[in-house]
Design a protein that fits this description.
The complex is a heterodimer of chains A (110) and B (112). Chain A is an all-beta fold and 110 residues long. Helices cover 0% and strands 52% of the residues of chain A. Chain A contains no helices and 11 strands. In chain A, the strands form 2 sheets. In chain A, strands 2, 4, 5, 6, 9, 10 and 11 form a 7-stranded mixed sheet that branches. In chain A, strands 1-3-8-7 form a 4-stranded antiparallel sheet, with no helix packed on it. The termini of chain A are far apart. By secondary structure, chain B is mainly β. Chain B has no helices and 11 strands. In chain B, a hairpin with a 6-residue loop joins β4 and β5. The termini of chain B are far apart. In chain B, the strands form 2 sheets. In chain B, strands 2, 4, 5, 9, 10 and 11 form a 6-stranded mixed sheet that branches. Chain B has a 5-stranded antiparallel sheet with strand order 1-3-8-7-6, with no helix packed on it. Classes of the chains: A mainly beta (110), B mainly beta (112). Chains A and B meet through β4, β5, β9 and β10 of A and β4, β5, β9 and β10 of B.
């Protein structure tokens, strides 16, 4: 079965620091997404990415966040000046005919 | 805005019985409806999906139904087993480029 790979699985960072979460989408997929899930809550849409640009973003995805596909395979989410409330699971997804999610990065801001 | 409602939020069934989870969506442009199973500490795992050109799809013990007129879709799990215990999310999407909107999830527990 095709797989979306995310690294790291767990990231602990100090408040105010920048983090980069990495994803390797499924190779022939064209649409990529980042989602966030605060513990025990709903899976929330952050941003979608197609053809090397953002196609849609949510209210959550403000100037603190950015996405990039630096080398044609990796898809990254950068969070600047992390806050305590940024602590959550972050999921990457890619979409061809079906939408598959990675196992997530657990971000803990202390 | 677009919304997906999911019920119930928790569901406990006896092993061997059936479980049904129901969702409604608001965006009439939605045409792809995946269902995800999420186990503790893991990502959402696609278990079955349905597109708007069909009304029902089955894969072994799992089936999904879609009523586009009423904007309802449902997940049916028959002959439930302990390993079916997880959180299940319904979702809806328009085109492949558009966001996937999740329901709030159903925590399914299978009683031995």
């Amino acid at each position: 079965e095709p797989e979306v790979t995310q690294t790291p699985s767990h990231q602990v960072t100090q408040m105010g620091q920048e983090v980069i979460l990495r994803c390797v989408p499924i190779s022939n997929h064209l649409y990529f997404y980042w989602y966030r899930q605060i513990l025990g809550q709903k899976v929330e849409f952050l941003v979608s990415f197609y053809n090397n640009e953002i196609s849609e973003k949510s209210e959550i995805f403000d100037d603190q966040f950015s996405v990039e596909r630096p080398d044609g395979s990796n898809f990254t989410l950068k969070i600047r000046s992390t806050k305590l409330e940024d602590s959550a699971m972050y999921f990457c997804a890619s979409n061809g005919m079906e939408a598959f999610f990675g196992q997530g990065t657990r971000l803990t801001v202390v | 805005g677009e919304n997906v409602e999911q019920h119930p939020s928790t569901l406990s069934v006896q092993e061997g019985d059936s479980a049904v989870i129901k969702c409604t969506y608001s965006d009439s442009a939605s045409n792809y409806f995946p269902w995800y199973k999420q186990e503790l500490g893991k990502g959402p795992q696609l278990i079955i999906d349905i597109r708007s050109n069909v009304g029902e799809k089955k894969d072994q013990r799992i089936a999904v139904t879609l009523n586009k007129t009423a904007k309802h879709f449902s997940l049916h799990i028959t002959e439930t087993q302990p390993e079916d215990s997880a959180v299940y999310f319904c979702a809806a999407q328009g085109s492949s480029a558009s966001k996937i909107i999740f329901g709030s999830g159903t925590r399914l527990s299978i009683r031995p």
